[in-house]
Design brief:
Blueprint (H helix, E strand, L loop, with lengths): L17 H13 L13 H13 L3 E5 L2 H11 L7 E5 L4 H9 L3 E5 L9 H7 L4 E4 L11 H11 L2 E5 L7 E2 L2 E2 L6 E5 L12 E5 L2 H11 L4 E3 L2 E3 L16 H32 L6 E2 L12 E5 L3 H13 L6 E2 L12 H4 L29 H8 L1 E5 L6 H16 L16 H4 L3
Parallel strand pairs: 2-3, 2-4, 4-5, 5-8
Antiparallel strand pairs: 1-9, 6-7, 8-9, 10-11, 12-13, 13-15, 14-15
């Protein structure tokens, strides 16, 4: 069997160099670790937010201490609370549903389609009079079908919050993800396309939503010249203390400059590996809504049935691709793998949010089977991270290991419906 020396993921970490080091040392030397004041005037978080507005093409950008914090603050700003339902895809991250629950609202699961993102057809079916927000997630580096999702949102007068944590820098027809909905959030945690170790970002074009988010992320008020000030009544909130530090801002400001290059490396590596694999019987790839906007950090391999996926995964690990996952087993990214969600863990002994009178009509099951089409797809699909500084030798080695693993899989035992021919492999997309 082929064997490849395959690196771990952590895209942005491979690009850390003296530029981030110098920025961090600058913060330490001047003693201004807090973003609003210090021994000298701090500026790195301000610089990061200004650069973010330019990069994403939005009017407002707010840096936070984590992607989880960004989700919580954005939902708070959108008015999500008791009596509200928020629709999320079955392929997600625990923090997304956690933020909904922390706001005492109810998450509602939506099937994913062969793009592994929110299925607009099922989304339409999941809307109720209690639906407040649609929360599409641009999962595993690829954008959602935002045109269809936004059409549904407009039809029902719903807000849209884009979770771009795994798709930072992604685009749809040249427009950055995060700018289609009312608000967009990003994570800068170590696994993400760019990183400052732990951090988050909220973007919007709505001034009122920005001020509400600012107030919620700080002390319940806005700031003028770094000092707390009384906002308009609509922006008086309960503050969550989720400010980004200058140390994180220093790293984030440098990493954002590097993000286009990081993405280009992952995209090209993924494209070259996929080109080697196209046409192999029994292997398909996810459908990508806009190939040019795919950020490239993951390759999804889809087999005919679960037994084949289990066998192929085993062979890939033996071939050196140690960090490949069968998606059904992808930890807290799968709704039914989240104990707190499956068991409807309450926030307090009173049972909230599940026990609140306002949520009495929102009774949902989160165990395996709640999204059967997604479950079936997850069971026969594999996810392979694409590191951001692969050599051609590593790319060729990975392609060889994958080809050998797929070709040596067990014979198909039964007829399984194939993925629609609109998959990106059929279109020759990366």
């Amino acid at each position: 069997m082929h064997k490849v020396d395959w690196p771990y993921e952590f895209p942005g970490a491979y690009w850390l160099d003296e530029k981030e080091e110098q920025a961090v040392l600058d913060v330490l030397r001047y003693g201004s670790l807090f973003r609003y004041y210090g021994l000298q005037k701090p500026h790195y978080v301000d610089d990061f937010e200004a650069a973010a507005k330019d990069y994403y093409g939005c009017d407002y950008a707010l840096a936070l201490n984590s992607g989880t914090g960004a989700l919580s603050v954005a939902l708070n700003a959108l008015g999500v609370g008791p009596g509200c339902e928020v629709i999320v895809p079955a392929f997600l991250w625990v923090a997304t549903v956690g933020a909904i629950v922390q706001n005492n609202a109810i998450p509602v699961l939506c099937e994913v389609d062969d793009s592994f993102t929110m299925d607009p057809a099922d989304l339409q079916k999941k809307i109720t009079p209690r639906t407040r927000t649609i929360l599409p997630i641009h999962m595993a580096g690829c954008p959602c079908d935002m045109e269809a999702i936004l059409a549904i949102a407009r039809e029902h007068h719903l807000s849209v919050l884009e979770d771009c944590a795994q798709c930072n820098g992604g685009e749809i027809k040249g427009r950055k993800v995060g700018t289609f909905g009312d608000m967009g959030i990003f994570s800068l945690q170590l696994n993400k396309n760019m990183t400052c170790g732990e951090g988050g970002l909220v973007i919007t074009n709505d001034k009122k939503l920005y001020q509400r988010a600012f107030s919620a992320h700080d002390m319940g008020m806005i700031r003028t010249n770094g000092r707390l000030a009384m906002p308009e009544p609509y922006a008086v909130m309960w503050g969550q203390g989720r400010r980004m530090t200058e140390l994180c801002g220093a790293v984030a400001a440098v990493q954002l400059q590097k993000l286009p290059q990081i993405l280009e490396h992952m995209r090209q590596s993924k494209k070259r590996i996929k080109t080697r694999l196209e046409g192999i019987p029994g292997l398909q790839f996810r459908r990508v809504h806009d190939a040019a906007g795919d950020t490239g950090p993951f390759l999804v391999l889809i087999l005919e049935e679960e037994t084949a996926a289990v066998a192929v995964k085993k062979n890939l690990v033996e071939g050196g691709l140690h960090n490949v996952f069968r998606i059904a087993e992808y930890g807290l990214h799968i709704y039914s793998n989240i104990p707190s969600l499956v068991n409807k863990q309450p926030l307090s002994p009173s049972g909230n949010p599940w026990s609140l009178a306002e949520n009495a009509g929102s009774i949902y099951d989160y165990q395996t089977g709640a999204c059967p089409r997604s479950d079936a797809l997850f069971a026969r699909s594999l996810l392979l991270p694409i590191p951001s500084k692969l050599t051609r030798e590593q790319e060729d080695g990975a392609a060889g290991v994958i080809q050998e693993a797929v070709e040596s899989r067990p014979a198909k035992r039964s007829v399984i419906c194939a993925i629609p021919a609109a998959s990106d492999s059929a279109q020759g997309q990366p």
